[in-house]
Amino acid sequence: MQNRYEKMEYRRCGNSGIKLPAVALGLWHNFGSESVYENARKMLCTAFDLGINHLDLANNYGPLAGSAEETLGRVMKSDLGKYRDELLISTKAGYYMWEGPYGEWGSKKNLIASIDQSLKRMNLEYVDIFYHHRPDPNTPISETAEALEQIVRCGKALYVGLSNYNPTQTVEMVEELRRRNVPCLLHQMSYSMLNRVNEPVIDVLDELNIGSIAFSPLAQGLLTERYMNGIPEDSRAATSWGFLKKESVTPEVISTVKALDGIAKEREQSLSQMALAWVLRRTTSVIIGASRPSQIVENAKAIENLEFTIEEIDRINNILGES
């Protein structure tokens, strides 16, 4: 699509030359070997046609673990490979991937092996961003930073990022990376209207002039119309492997969601569009998930109305219990 870059807003990522699309596509769910490949291919192509040129993965995404990267590798070969220089592709390592003492966390052994495995699965020579997926309490920060440095120096990643680090851990790792002249491009954390625990992390990133990108900005689908009238049989909350559990869909949560939906309707947005716009007030970008192309089309339209009045912010904070 010739005008794809006219449809998306791109934002400077901290103190770098990179601009991130306001909306990125995450391959956490619905892109693995247990999902329908053709649907995954259509979602990836739909996203790119909308100017969503940032695709976010991790080595353990599936299910099965690793299969989301394999799916992207197939789509790169069939459809998107010729656009490689227009795409920003990220992956991560740190959660469990294989048996034995080196199959997770943050040792140099784990991270170097992980990036090599990921590149093979995705049929790529390099990724644009390689994240340490979670802090490791038993490995020195210097060793993890050394591994990230080596990955960049070897050309296997252009930039490094952090994910799920708390404020103190973030500062420590950023300082260690800076001593090695390997700047941290951005930090990825869970953040949504219903989960504001990481706002102190965003405060630190603002001070350090580092980009921020939120995953689960729709709270695993709670901040959509999906659960307003019960739990659909084909929803994440109804699956045995999803992170959203049935017990999380409480009457109190649904009451909050319905109140927020009322404000969204006044703004002439869907609830999901408003929820994404709200997160984008504080972050550089958001990562959306999807189970079908139409969801990507709808959520990409969040950029059409990103401004909130003071009254709207006050009403939303009151609904969220943050007066």
Outline of the structure:
Helices cover 37% and strands 15% of the residues. It has helices at residues 37-49, 67-80, 108-122, 141-153, 167-179, 199-208, 251-266, 271-279, 293-300, 310-319; strands spanning 10-12, 19-21, 23-26, 54-56, 88-93, 127-132, 157-163, 184-190, 211-215, 285-288. Helix 1 (37-49) packs parallel to helix 9, helix 3 runs parallel beside helix 4 (141-153) and helix 7 packs antiparallel against helix 10.
Describe this structure in words.
- By secondary structure, the chain is α/β, with parallel strands linked by helices.
- Helices cover about 35% and strands about 15% of the residues.
- It has ten helices and ten strands.
- The chain has helices at about 35-50, 65-80, 110-120, 140-155, 165-180, 200-210, 250-265, 270-280, 295-300, 310-320; strands spanning about 10, 20, 25, 55, 90-95, 125-130, 155-165, 185-190, 210-215, 285-290.
- An eight-stranded parallel barrel has the order 3-4-5-6-7-8-9-10, surrounded by six helices. A two-stranded antiparallel sheet has the order 1-2.
- Strand 6, helix 4 (about 140-155) and strand 7 form a beta-alpha-beta unit.
- Helix 1 (about 35-50) crosses helix 2 (about 65-80), helix 2 runs parallel beside helix 3 and helix 7 packs antiparallel against helix 10 (about 310-320).
- The longest helix has 16 residues, at about 250-265.
- The chain is globular and about 50 Å long.
- The N and C termini lie far apart (about 45 Å).
